[in-house]
Design a protein that fits this description.
The structure is a single chain. The chain is mainly alpha-helical and 150 residues long. The protein has a domain of 90 residues: Arc Repressor Mutant, subunit A. The strands form 2 sheets. Strands 3-5-4 form a 3-stranded antiparallel beta sheet. Strands 1-2 form a two-stranded antiparallel sheet. It is globular and about 55 Å long. The N terminus and C terminus are likely disordered. This is Helix-turn-helix transcriptional regulator.
Length: 150
């Protein structure tokens, strides 16, 4: 065993580097990616980054326009995860980012920017055309962190 490596026993009794802690970190990452991978999550979070909005404002802002049912389900999912909150107002409720949502959004935007750089460097040029033909939206990335070199 190497110095500093934590080992545990597998079913057969042999030692192996402990992947339990690493697997927990992966699971945390996968959970976050799964949440962000849901349809309309990024569009809602980026739409709410400037100011609170009513349901109808979100519905009119997001392009391509989601169905009312899809937008409602996405907002409920984000509320359940405490990334978006809803206040009751006179003209209907306003949706806004919670402190957790405000903290998450810059991380997501930076991550997406890095993925875009990676894709521009390594992605097959034909893949880019296929993505737009499939009707998938292009998210405008706005980051609170300055541009970094390649």
């Amino acid at each position: 065993m190497g110095r500093g490596v934590v080992c545990s026993r597998n079913r057969r009794g042999s030692s192996r580097p402990d992947g339990g802690r690493l697997m927990h970190e992966f699971n945390t990452f996968y959970t976050a990616v799964k949440l962000c991978g849901h349809r309309w999550t990024l569009e809602i979070l980026t739409s709410l980054q400037q100011h609170p909005m009513r349901f109808t404002d979100l519905f009119q802002t997001i392009r391509p326009t989601p169905s009312a049912k899809s937008l409602n389900e996405a907002l409920h999912r984000l509320q359940d995860r405490e990334l978006v909150g809803r206040t009751n107002g006179g003209e209907g409720g306003l949706y806004q980012l919670t402190p957790a949502g405000r903290q998450l959004l810059p991380l997501l935007l930076d991550f997406l920017q890095e993925l875009r750089r990676w894709a521009e460097r390594y992605q097959d040029p034909g893949d880019q055309a296929g993505r737009h033909q499939a009707g998938q939206p292009e998210v405008t990335l706005r980051s609170s962190v300055g541009e970094r070199g390649p």
